[in-house]
Amino acid sequence: MKKKLNIALMGSGFMGKAHSFAWTLVNKFFDVPYEPVLKVNFGTDEDITREFAEKWGWEEISMNWEEVINRDDIDIVDIVTPTYIHKDMAVAAAKAGKHIFCEKPCAVNYAQTKEMAEAADKAGVVNYLNHNYRRVPAVAFAKQMIEEGKLGTIYHYRGAYLQDWVMDPNFPLTWHFKKDLCGGGPLFDLSSHSVDLARYLIGEIDAVTAVNKTFIEERPLPGKRAATFTAGGEVNSEKGKVEVEDASFMIAEFENGALGSFESTRFASGRKNYNTFEIYGSKGALTFNFERMNELQYLNLDDPADEQGFKTILVTNMTHPYAAWWAAGHVIGYENTFVHAVADFLKAVEKNETIEPNFHDGEKIIRTLEAAALSSDEKRRVEVSEIK
Ligand code: SOE
C-alpha cells in the first residue's frame, strides 16, 4: 500500500482540469511513491466549484483558501488560480509546511517571485513551477541531444508561441487583460513558457530588446463563466480598458553568445496553441511545434551534403523520455505532460529534493519578462540585471 498524500487544488478552471487529470492518472502509468488523494477544491464561485469538484472527483469544496492551506490534513497545495494570488497562496503554503505545485507564470512581477522563492527555501518545502512543455517527451529528448553535443555551438534560438483566442473584439475583459491580475498579456502567459524552454535547452538570457502592442483597447466586461479560451456566453454592453499587450516581440542576447527571438501573440489567426522553437548550431539544428508534439525535426550537418535535410524523429519509443504510456508510435497529448510533471514532483517530495523548474526559475523568467516590458516602454535595450 502506498502512502496517501492529500492534495488541495486552488482553482477550478482550464488548468484545474489538466491538474485533476494528472493527479488521477499518475499512479496508473508511473511508478510513483505516493497515492494522491483529491481532497479539497478551493474556488470563488460555489456553483462552478461544486460542478467542477463533482466531475473531477474532489472530495470537498471550500470558498476559503487560507483555511484550506492551513488544514492539518493537507500535504500538497496545487495552485491553478489567476496569477495575482500565486504569491499569497504559495507563501502561506510554505509557512504551513506544505509542498507546492504551482501553475505558471510564477507571479505578476519579479518582486513577488523572490518572496515565493525565499518563503519556500526558508520552509524547506518542495516547490515546482509548472512550465509543462519541458516535460513533452520530444522536448526532453531535444535537451538530451543538445547535451550530447549534437548541435555543437548554438547560434540561434527562435521561440514563437502563437494563439488566436481573443481576436474577437467582443471576447470579454477577463483577468488575462488586467495587469494587476496577470502581470502581462502574452508576454507573461506565453513567452514565459518560451523563455523557460530556452533557458532549459540552451541557457540564460542577459539582455532583451522588445516591442509590445495592444490591438484592442477596450472589451466588454466579463460574465460569471468567462474564462481562459471561453467567452462564457453572457453579453455585456459595458466596456472596460485592456491593460496589457496583445502581442510581444523580443530579441534576446544569451549569456553563451547565442542570439535569439521570442514572439508571443493572441492575434495569430488560425494558430491555436502554436508553441514552437527552432535551434540552430554549428553541427545541426532542431525544430519543434507543440501542435505536432510527438515529433522533432532534426538536421545533421554531418550527413552527406547532397542528402542533407530535416528529418522527422517520432519521439514515442520506449527508450525516449517519459516512456510509460503506450508502445512506439502510439502518440500522446497535452494532458500527458501534466502527468509527467506530477510524477516527477511526487518523486521529489519523497526524497525532499529540488525539482525544476521551481520558484528560483520563476524569478529568472519573470525578471526577463519584466526587462522586455521595460524595453518596450522605454524603447531601448535592457539588461536583465537592471530589474531589481
Ligand atoms: C492560455 O494562453 C493557455 O492556457 C496558457 O495559460 C497555458 O500556459 C498554455 O499551456 C495554453 O494556453
Automatic annotation (TrEMBL):
Entry GO MF terms: nucleotide binding; oxidoreductase activity
InterPro entries on file: Gfo/Idh/MocA-like_OxRdtase_N, Gfo/Idh/MocA_oxidrdct_glycsds, GFO_IDH_MocA-like_dom, NAD(P)-bd_dom_sf
Superkingdom of origin organism: Bacteria
Pfam families to which the protein is assigned, alphabetical: GFO_IDH_MocA, GFO_IDH_MocA_C3
Domain Gfo/Idh/MocA-like oxidoreductase N-terminal: 5-129
GFO/IDH/MocA-like oxidoreductase domain segment(s): 141-286
Keywords noted in UniProt: Oxidoreductase
Name of this chain's protein: Gfo/Idh/MocA family oxidoreductase
